[in-house]
Fold:
Amino acid sequence: QSQLVESGGGLVQPGGSLRLSCAASGFTLDNYAIGWFRQAPGKEREGVSCISSSDGTTHYLDSVKGRFTISRDNAKNTVYLEMNSLKPEDTGVYYCATPQVSGCVGWGVQRPILYGSRWAVVYDYWGQGTQVTVSS
Structure:
């Protein structure tokens, strides 16, 4: 069974750091773009970042630019999201998923085009997510 599994979340103080992992099982990530998403209570799911498989092009939500870094290690079949200078508004459940193509579908040059439930129409293999809580 093909799936993605997120890990690395936790409770961290404002200004702290976490590194999330997205590991694939049942398939290889080599040819697929991978996106990170988050959902806070009472809010729609939003795209946080994405990395393509073809040339490693990356995309970021405006509010995380300069603080978050997405990367991939195809040898480990894993994509990472390094999160620094965390803020309380970064709190939420973080998910990874793939559009099952090489490019980051739903991302414009500057910011995501899709929003909310529309991400689930395009992206697949959603994991159960990992909770990130930023609080003092």
